[in-house]
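INFO  loader      accepted 1 record
INFO  loader      residues=780
INFO  predictor   begin
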Amino acid sequence: MIKACSIIKNIQFGMLLHSATVMKDCAAHLMVGSTLISMYGKCTAIIEAEYIFNELCDPDIVSCNAILAALVDVGQGDRALFLYRQLHEEGMHPNHGTFVSVLQACCCLAEIEEAQLVQDRWLKLRSLEIGCALHSASRGKGFASDAFIANTLINMYGKSCAIVEAELVFITLPDPDIILWNSLLSMYIQNNQGKKALWVYKMIIEEEINVVALTYVFALQACDCISEDEQTIVIEGQAMKMDSLRLGKALHLDATIMGFTEDAYLGTALISMYSKCGAVAEADDVFVSLTDRDIVSWNALVSGYVEWGQSDKALQLFRQMQEENVGANSQTIVFALQACANLVEVEKTLIVKDKPLKVVVLEIGLALHALAIRKCIMNSFVCNTIVNMYGSCGAVLQAEHVFVTLLDPDVVSWNAMLSAYVQQGQGASALQLYHEMQEKGTAPNNLTLLFALQACGIVAEKETTVFINGSHKKLVSLEIGCALHKDATAKGFIFDVYIGNALLSMYGKCGDMFERDNLFKSFVQRDIVSWNAMLSMFVEQGKAEQAFLLYKQLEKELIICDDATLIFILQACGIMGCLSVCEEVHFSIICAGYDQSPSVAATLLNAYGSCSMIQNLKVSFDGLVESDVVSWNAIICGHLADEDIASTLHLYEEMKQYGIEPDDVTLTSVLCACSHFGFVDGFECFLYTIRQYDIYPNRWHYGAVIDLFGRAGDFERVKILLEKMPWEPDVSIALCLLGSSRTHGNLDLAEWAFMHAVRLQPKQPSAYILMSNLYADVRI
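INFO  predictor   done
INFO  writer      dumping tokens
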């Protein structure tokens, strides 16, 4: 009966049976005591198990093995090994069961130990050293060929990253059964050796060993490993990993032929494999076909949706779980929180009544946070994901609140909070946190340095430039950035391509072009992101010719461009206004297959507009299979730049007829067109558009409307707008008012606008010139 309680883990009934043994005075019997120890161990009641063991007068090897196994069951590998040593010193003679338990204790140690690089091998030295000693001891006792011990040895060596040692154990076995073959498969998968695992699977099939469902589970997990290193390709608009998918489908067919498709573990492995390969529809089909869905299979599908950008479906599935009373665990909540973060980050929006997407997602995130608290699963993994979700939703205060409640934040926790600050543009807070992290003894990793460098770039964007040694620099940010550069070098992160690219960006934003160029030249490995970082900085600084020369160098070195590269070089074309270069890049875009990319197409349209090539602009726009608001904005802006005001307004109306909702950029263009055309009714258009399309007016909109009324000489409305504006008028508005005041001879407004412009930018020459001309006009 006690053994039955152990199997079903019913501690309440087990304790009743324990009481009965005490009443009958047989609890101290070695067999009964050993069984009780085992039962309490399986039920994770280790204190009760130890109490019984300590009450035994003369424990034998069975009771010793029982307490060792109990300690292993609750993950206390250190204590199990200490007890083994103590019992060994007291003269205990271990049997094969003893070695199985203490080797499993080594596995517990390995699971929490960090691997170290030793002679080109990553190893977990402490657990490996103890495991090797136990292996030697088991050989000395003649247990080396015992199947249970061999199985545990392979597992122990695998968890210690000692692949060669695990292989040696296996090849010395005279006739390994399917359990040992499966252990070898599992060992390879633990160490991300998917190809070797599939090679072992092939050997199993060729040697006609009787496979079990678990064999196919491991083989499918090997496909998962291979898929992680495979490049994604897009087929009919869907991103997939075809080589891994073909292998997975073949394994699915083999498992079906063997009649294992009803196995729950295999079903979950199939869902995971299809999800990781990008075949989410197939994963969904497997999920629907399962008669017995446990939490692991639900999580596998939710994870697949999140991984492949279908976060809305992930949240729908999570809701279905709640409706079907499937209890969510920490993994489920983590995946749902990741879905929330992803939804905010993607450009497309969900259809949500009367609420911005970010607000709706934050509400879902708050509910998930509350659910995690209610289920008492606020572990570090969940807390870190909650911090990340709040950061993505812009709720930095909530992220801070969760972060400060962590008793012992690890590097992932610090990185999550750093990321939240960086996402919301709080560079100074991020750098302060980076300093605090090191003061508290947490060693930063490469991701920490990446966030710190991004934070430095944010601070640089807000810092005032100082002209020194013939160039404009941001000295405070530069000093911080140089210190971070030293940190990256000292910790060996300097060769990380992402760190290198972040350093390029940081030096560019701080104005140290010499250091930036030297750093770029020093890169042993320059990926497309590195090239893009340089192109981006040249474009930001208006150095279009240098950007084009770098693009030519990139082509010469046969670097494959991505959409970002083409966008940057098109922006450079727009700055240069060079049609021949623009057409050359357009040809490259078509060859690379990016002509239908919305972002590339919109930038191409802007480039043609900047080159005043309206015909090319129209042809490119008409060639788009699907036009969005960005491409419509581009063609509207192009006609506006060409001073074709009638066509600009006509295109705006046509855009609405096609069902494309205007955004703030569209509204700015239309207002500018109305201003230049002298169309005072543009103000009514402004009011209608912000109400109809829920656009929050920005300072550019106010500036355009003020310019509109100023050109029309309606200075009463100008004064009303200036008073009601939620921001202080900037220099551009002041200069517009100076121009319109001169046109209409409004000296009072002109003098106010002049004083305002001079206060904001004392060295701005335009204000002095315009005011001087106005005074000259008045004298005349």
